[in-house]
Design goal:
about 60 residues, mainly alpha, single chain, about 0% strand
């Protein structure tokens, strides 16, 4: 009789996870680099609609 080769469910799950992990690294997309020292243009949490700091002085 021929011997049957069986794969346990733990080994199958491990192979699927490894395959997904390897396929996730297969494609990449370039991104625009933004220097951390530069401020982004446009409105922000502490800036106005123009994206500029607004300082009010007490008269």
């Amino acid at each position: 009789m021929k011997e049957r080769v069986t794969v346990s469910s733990k080994a199958l799950i491990l192979m699927v996870i490894a395959g997904l992990a390897l396929s996730a690294c297969g494609s990449y997309q370039a991104f625009d680099y933004v220097d951390q020292n530069e401020s982004m243009k446009g409105p922000g949490a502490f800036t106005g609609e123009d994206g500029e700091w607004v300082i009010y002085r007490k008269k």
